[in-house]
Amino acid sequence: MLAEDAKQTIGERMLHHRAIDAAVWAMPLMNFKFYRDALADAGVGPNDVGDYSKLQDWKFQTATPNNTTPYILSYWNLKDGPIVVEMPASVEGVGVFGTIMDA
Predict the structure, then answer these.
(1) Number of domains in the chain
(2) Residue 36's CB: how many other CB atoms inside 10 A?
(3) Tens digits of residue pLDDT in 4-16
(4) CA–CA separation, 6 vs 42, rounded Å?
(5) Do residues 71 and 51 make contact, with C-beta atoms less than 8 angstroms apart?
(6) Which residues are in coiled coils (predicted)?
């Protein structure tokens, strides 16, 4: 235990750890917000699909960048009713990995 830790009360230590938890748990939401805002800035609206035309590099400002994956992104608005998402079947050497989240 560090000397400065010994001076903290339990409440102070708990507040410190809760602040770290809040930052860690907020990362997926902020990552989603980044994607949604970037799509909107590029003119891609809800219920449309946007894709990056080239592989990304270190300048791709996201929490988990990958320079070997073509990114295809979308976000939906269910205000006008349900939607149907159709995905093509994967073939040898090509597949789709992703998530559908309720944000």
Answers:
(1) 1
(2) 16
(3) 666 889 999 999 9
(4) 51
(5) yes
(6) none
Chain-centre distance for alpha carbon 100:
11
At CA 102, angle to CA 100 and CA 57, rounded to 5?
50
Lowest mean pLDDT among 22-26, 53-57, 70-74, 97-101: 97-101
Beta strand extents in 12-56 (DSSP E only): 49-51
| Three-state SS at 24 | helix
- What percentage of the chain has pLDDT greater than the value 90? 13
Could you give the CA distance from residue 27 to residue 2 in angstroms, rounded to a whole number? 28
How many CB atoms neighbour CB 16 within 10 A?
12
Whether the predicted pLDDT of 22 surpasses 90: yes
